[in-house]
């Protein structure tokens, strides 16, 4: 037993740190640290910097222009990026649809789509969920009917994250309504500017425009945009979900949030003393930090087990639950740390281009909004209830 | 022991309920939120016409002379509809301070106008770094010719933008103790910066730069307001717990309805046992909260004592914990839809969590209770 990273892995960490120090723009890191909203251009800026270094496609094999890193390297990279305040890489293209195209796509699709993802030319969004198909994803109804060398798509997707920025969407559509639930589904790629696609914003409780509804009205999609075989889309979907779930514990993000929590608790005062010296609040911070340590060790154990290839099994469901609960607990404490100053709803201070004087402290505007926004962590990517069902079935065999 | 309402109280509850139901749909609330006042002056007028604005005010001042139970009944309904009007801060907290601290002249001058709804009060008792402790003050008052000059700043003054009179706490220079001053928001040197709060109502920050206040507008005796502030915060807390109860009941109702109607995997999600248990836990928290709301209402007007303080702290603690649990779980059980601005549930969740950011959160009250706890 040895809990240490190898010398090579430590050297890699140093390399990542040096890169971030040199290349992560300070204004971007500041926005991330203060919890401001990021503009599309902010994401694009960071993606271009990573791409120039060859570090954008961390999950890709070298042959496609990826890093070919080990799971441990990816973990280190992710952690260092979060701690430095790098914008989170929007996964839909590079980490979701790309692995599916690599695994199930044909040569033409690989050659067309993958370079466009690397260069940032395409921004993808994920069209899985529907109003009637959330946890029960296989209940989806959006219909794609073959018409010559096209599919004609009708229906609706919802909760489409950052769909307003996207020029491409990958969708699960029903191609055989007669087949059993999972068997009539196909994986289809579409242009967001196709005639018949309408995007409508959904504003979340924190006032943010992060998700959308996407409507399809007789959208004609070239049949060559089908990935894999017709009616075999569920296989792609499941493959993608395993990719979506790894890394969902969000250790790096939680550590960064914990740092920010400590900064806030040190700056806020109660009875003229820093809040962080209040025994009760300090104990609350200590509690999440100790639990986070445990989740981190659990993540490392899984990483070590999957080092030689292979995907984590149902254990990743445990980590998803614990990781999401920890991050929610940290944002809960950040909000609490502000006392009455958590109340003002200062949307303008959260805007990417805000440069004015903050009403209170520079860190005051975001925590309450973030706390509410973070409710999503236990809902999406397979809700925590669904994860528990998976554990009960796959791990416990109940 | 009797947990029933008397006839008059039942009528009061029915009246508010009817008014709220008729005028405060969620869609209307959203329009009020977007309006310049951030609430409905028309609804305020209706509250006043029905005598509701006078409920907490003493009978000697043209008020209804209601107590903790009456305040509870009104606040519970205002909470159920997420009303945005500054009823609690004006009619209960502000008016309570005037009634307890004010001279006979001040009470006669101010309270009848508050009771009629014509004058709104607001209380400015939080500052940067006060963090729920009303005697942690940096704002100062300097004696000057026939009055005082106030210097400092105040934060998150609920309803401060529309108040005709703001009760500002300050420390008289070089002395200890807290004093309350009646400040005209339009006076020279008062800078009001307004904003909505994340749970809906509007508030403001105040900058006071040498604001002149007449001798007559010092409330009570110099440096002697601490006990009254603590006492009136207790009354306000009790009422706020009732507001939370109304909101919890509504969040609970919406969630229960949703579990019966939302279908996934070919069945209503309310069939899943894990969700049934969660709902049962929420119900348990709701009932504990209800019990503490009643306790708080019944002790709110008791003479000041450690026992009263303990009970009110316990009520705020239990209600704060229940509020957060119900807020979080009702979003969770709704899935994505529970996170949308378009749906009232999300606003109940915000309200329930953010109510803990006034008058002290669960930690604050746990500490208060621990300090006063009786030890065998
Ligand atoms: C902010 C946000 C961003 C999102 N982004 C995307 C995106 O980009 N693309 C996309 O396709 N989707 C996205 N989603 C959708 C997300 O995947 C769904 O919200 C999620 O699958 C849950 O579905 P639902 O919201 O319909 O809730 P429901 O499935 O209706 O669930 C309601 C409640 O019932 C519970 N439940 C359901 N089934 C069971 C069961 N069998 N046992 C026990 N409990 C159960 C759930 O856990 C939940 O508590 C996003 C969601 C959010 C909130």
Descriptive overview:
The complex is a heterodimer of chains A (398) and B (376). Chain A is α+β, with helices and mostly antiparallel strands. Chain A has helices at 7-23, 26-33, 40-53, 71-84, 91-104, 107-119, 233-245, 251-267, 279-306, 315-337, 347-350, 366-373, 384-395, and strands spanning 124-127, 143-147, 150-157, 168-174, 185-191, 197-203, 209-222, 226-227, 269-270, 273-274. Chain A has a 4-stranded mixed beta sheet. Chain A has a 4-stranded antiparallel beta sheet with strand order 2-3-7-6, with no helix packed on it. The model of chain A has no long low-confidence stretch (mean pLDDT 94). Chain B is an alpha+beta fold. In chain B, strands 1, 2, 3, 4, 5, 6, 7 and 8 form an 8-stranded mixed beta sheet that branches. A two-stranded antiparallel sheet of chain B has the order 9-10. The model of chain B has no long low-confidence stretch (mean pLDDT 97). Chains A and B meet through strand 9, helix 9, helix 12 and helix 13 of A and strand 6, strand 9, helix 9, helix 10 and helix 11 of B. The complex binds flavin-adenine dinucleotide. Flavin-adenine dinucleotide sits between chains A (126, 128-129, 134-135, 159-161, 210-211, 376, 379-380, 383, 385-386, 389) and B (262, 264-265, 269, 272, 274-275, 332-333, 335-336, 339).
Task: Write a brief caption for the model.
The complex is a heterodimer of chains A (398) and B (376). Chain A is an alpha+beta fold and 398 residues long. In chain A, 46% of the residues lie in helices and 15% in strands.
């Amino acid at each position: 037993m040895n809990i240490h990273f190898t010398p090579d892995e430590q050297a890699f960490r140093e390399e990542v740190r040096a890169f971030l120090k040199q290349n992560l723009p300070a204004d971007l890191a500041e926005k991330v640290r203060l919890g401001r909203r990021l503009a599309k251009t902010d994401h694009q800026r960071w993606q271009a910097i990573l791409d120039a270094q060859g570090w954008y496609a961390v999950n890709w094999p070298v042959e496609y222009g990826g890093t070919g890193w080990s799971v441990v390297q990816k973990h280190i990279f992710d952690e260092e990026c979060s701690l430095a305040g790098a914008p989170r890489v929007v996964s839909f293209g590079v980490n979701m649809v790309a692995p599916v195209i690599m695994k199930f796509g044909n040569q033409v699709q690989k050659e067309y789509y993958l370079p466009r993802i690397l260069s940032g030319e395409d921004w993808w969004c994920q069209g899985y969920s529907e109003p009637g198909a959330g946890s029960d994803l296989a209940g989806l109804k959006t219909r794609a009917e073959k018409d010559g060398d096209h599919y004609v798509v009708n229906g609706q997707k919802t909760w489409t994250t950052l769909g307003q920025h996207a020029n491409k969407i990958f969708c699960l559509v029903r191609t055989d309504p007669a087949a059993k639930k999972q068997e009539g589904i196909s994986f289809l790629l579409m242009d967001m500017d196709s005639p018949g696609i309408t995007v409508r914003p959904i504003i979340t409780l924190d006032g943010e425009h992060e998700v959308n509804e996407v409507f399809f009205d007789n959208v004609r999609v070239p049949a060559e945009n089908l990935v894999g075989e017709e009616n075999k889309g569920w296989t792609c979907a499941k493959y993608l979900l395993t990719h979506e779930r790894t890394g969902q514990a969000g250790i790096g993000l939680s550590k960064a949030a914990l740092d920010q929590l400590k900064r806030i608790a040190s700056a806020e005062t109660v009875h003229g003393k820093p809040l962080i010296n209040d025994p009760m609040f300090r104990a609350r911070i200590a509690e999440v930090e100790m639990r986070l340590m445990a989740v981190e060790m659990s993540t490392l154990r899984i990483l070590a087990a999957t080092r030689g290839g292979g995907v984590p099994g149902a254990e990743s469901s445990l980590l998803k639950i614990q990781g999401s609960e920890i991050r929610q607990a940290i944002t809960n404490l950040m909000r609490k740390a502000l006392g009455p100053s958590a109340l003002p709803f200062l949307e303008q201070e959260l805007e990417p281009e805000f440069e004015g004087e903050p009403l209170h402290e520079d860190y005051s505007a975001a925590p309450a909004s973030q706390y509410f926004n973070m409710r999503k962590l236990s809902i999406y990517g397979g809700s925590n209830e669904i994860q528990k069902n998976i554990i009960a079935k796959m791990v416990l065999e109940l | 022991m009797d947990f029933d309402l008397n006839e008059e109280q039942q009528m009061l509850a029915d009246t508010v309920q009817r008014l709220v139901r008729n005028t405060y749909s969620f869609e209307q609330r959203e329009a009020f939120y977007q309006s310049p006042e951030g609430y409905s002056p028309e609804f305020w007028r209706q509250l006043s016409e029905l005598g509701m604005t006078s409920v907490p005010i003493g009978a000697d001042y043209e008020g209804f002379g209601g107590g903790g139970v009456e305040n509870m009944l009104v606040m519970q309904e205002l909470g159920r509809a997420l009303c945005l009007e500054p009823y609690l801060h004006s009619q209960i907290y502000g008016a309570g301070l005037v009634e307890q601290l004010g001279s006979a002249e001040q009470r006669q001058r101010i309270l009848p106008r508050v009771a009629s709804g014509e004058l709104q009060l607001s209380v400015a008792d939080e500052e940067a770094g006060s963090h729920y402790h009303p005697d942690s003050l940096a704002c100062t008052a300097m004696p000057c010719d026939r009055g005082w000059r106030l210097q400092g700043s105040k934060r998150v003054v609920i309803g401060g933008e529309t108040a005709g009179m703001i009760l500002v706490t300050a420390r008289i220079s070089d002395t200890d103790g807290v004093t309350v001053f009646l400040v005209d928001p339009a006076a020279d040197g008062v800078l009001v910066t307004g904003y909505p709060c994340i749970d809906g109502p509007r508030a403001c920050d105040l900058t006071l730069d040498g604001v002149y206040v007449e001798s007559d507008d010092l409330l009570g005796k110099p440096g002697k307001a601490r006990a009254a502030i603590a006492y009136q915060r207790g009354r306000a807390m009790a009422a706020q717990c009732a507001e939370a109860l109304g909101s919890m009941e509504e969040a609970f109702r919406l969630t229960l309805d949703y579990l019966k109607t939302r279908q996934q995997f070919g069945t209503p999600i309310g069939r899943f046992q894990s969700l049934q248990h969660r709902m049962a836990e929420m119900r348990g928290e709701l009932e504990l909260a209800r019990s503490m709301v009643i306790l708080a209402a019944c002790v709110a007007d008791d003479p000041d004592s450690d026992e009263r303080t303990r009970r009110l702290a316990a009520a705020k603690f239990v209600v704060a914990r229940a509020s957060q649990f119900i807020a979080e779980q009702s979003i969770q059980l709704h899935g994505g839809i529970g996170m949308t601005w378009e749906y009232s549930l999300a606003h109940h969740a915000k309200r329930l969590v953010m109510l803990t950011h006034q008058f002290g959160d669960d930690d604050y009250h746990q500490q208060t209770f621990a300090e006063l706890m009786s030890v065998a």
